[in-house]
Specification:
Blueprint: H1 7-15, E1 54-55, E2 61-63, E3 73-74, H2 87-90, H3 101-112, E4 122-124, H4 129-137, H5 139-148, H6 150-175, E5 179-183, H7 196-216, E6 221-224, H8 233-238, E7 243-247, H9 253-260, E8 265-272, H10 283-297, E9 303-309, H11 317-334
Parallel strand pairs: 4-5, 5-6, 6-7, 7-8, 8-9
Antiparallel strand pairs: 1-2, 2-3
Helix pairs in contact: 3-6, 4-5, 4-6, 5-6, 6-7, 10-11
Organism: Alkalibaculum sporogenes
Keywords: Transferase
GO molecular function: transferase activity; uroporphyrinogen decarboxylase activity
């Protein structure tokens, strides 16, 4: 198939709900491969989510370890808020007076974009209200507070929202992103941390205030929520989410596809579980799983293939070989599926 669109142009078509020329295949990039999009934090947020960890703008310490492949998580049992009714005494919004947004925007674009013709400039607006709250209190106390001190939690969420709105407004004005990334995990592998009704009452209206600003600028909205979160997706589509990333296989992705079509792009859709025969593995079985995923999710657009074998040991030569089969098969299908 002869294609005319660059990978970025084609990818953004999917993000806007339009029909692409071919199926975008997401990649983490590398020395010679530009990714489809950035998933970048603007400089004002800091680098605490990076492999070195650090302290976030609210004072939560993030740590990393080899066991979690150096992904940064709030430091265990180091909670800065133990009683939600005392949040006004403990938490103070970050002071950004004097921050040079214009200079930061130029520096960040240079930092994150290797090739502007291939990679969409997608940035976080730091609207992750739920994760921030859990970072303050931990899951046990935080979830209890949601049910026992609802009014206090709502007032704290409004306080966090003001910070998110400040970041989002300036991000849109100075950075001119090609996509807005809302990262707020509210689900585990098996089910959401909170009920769909609580999610819809507590979080969706606050997300909407940020996303309304983004939609006014006609910037595609990417929503990150891992695990089985399909019950939380419909209200997010209602308030403007264009792309669900990563759409993991614990969800009924076929049903989501049928319900929303290209209005909600599915970014993900693939996992290959490491077999009990490992490291013995059937290459054809791996490739057939990729083909099956395309058959289920690629029709009529609205699909970005992303996924790999379920292992974090990315440097293992056998893992790399299997992921190579997956990427090769996906790239072959990418250009033929819409012929």
């Amino acid at each position: 198939m002869t294609t005319h669109l660059t990978q970025k142009e084609n990818f953004l078509r999917v993000a806007r709900g339009e029909m692409p020329e071919y199926v975008p295949v997401a990649t983490l990039g590398g020395p010679d491969v530009a990714p489809l999009m950035t998933m970048a934090d603007p400089a004002i947020i800091g680098s605490f989510r990076g492999p070195g960890g650090g302290i976030d703008p609210w004072g939560v310490t993030f740590v990393t370890s080899e066991e979690i492949n150096f992904a940064a998580l709030p430091k265990p049992n180091d909670f800065i808020l133990t009683d939600v009714t005392k949040w006004r005494d403990v938490l103070k919004a970050p002071d950004y007076s004097g921050f040079d947004w214009e200079a930061a925007a130029k520096a960040d674009r240079k930092k994150y974009i290797q090739d502007p013709d291939k990679t969409a400039y997608v940035l976080s607006g730091y609207a992750d209200i739920f994760q921030q709250f859990i970072g303050f209190m931990g899951f046990t106390e935080g979830l209890c507070a949601i049910y026992e001190e609802r009014e206090e939690v709502e007032e704290l969420f409004d306080y966090l929202l003001e910070h998110s709105l400040y970041i989002t407004k300036n991000l849109l004005h100075y950075y001119k992103p090609e996509g807005y990334y809302l990262l707020d995990d509210t689900a585990s592998k098996l089910q959401p941390f909170i009920s769909p009704s609580v999610f819809k009452e507590l979080l969706v209206p606050r997300y909407k205030k940020c996303l309304d600003l983004v939609r006014e600028e006609e910037v595609p909205i990417f929503y990150h929520n891992c695990g089985r979160c399909e019950d939380l997706i419909p209200p997010m589509v209602d308030i403007g989410v264009n792309v669900w990333d990563p759409a993991q296989v614990q969800n009924d992705l076929v049903a989501i596809k049928e319900k929303f079509g290209p209005k909600l792009a599915i970014n993900g859709g693939f996992e290959f579980n490491m077999p009990i025969t490992w490291p013995v593995i059937d290459e054809e079985e791996v490739r057939e799983k990729v083909r099956s995923t395309f058959k289920k999710l690629a029709h009529d657009g609205g699909f970005i293939f992303s996924g790999m074998i379920t292992s974090l040991d990315w440097m293992d030569p056998k893992i790399q070989e299997v992921n190579g089969w997956i990427a090769d098969e996906a790239n072959k299908l990418s250009k033929t599926i819409y012929n």
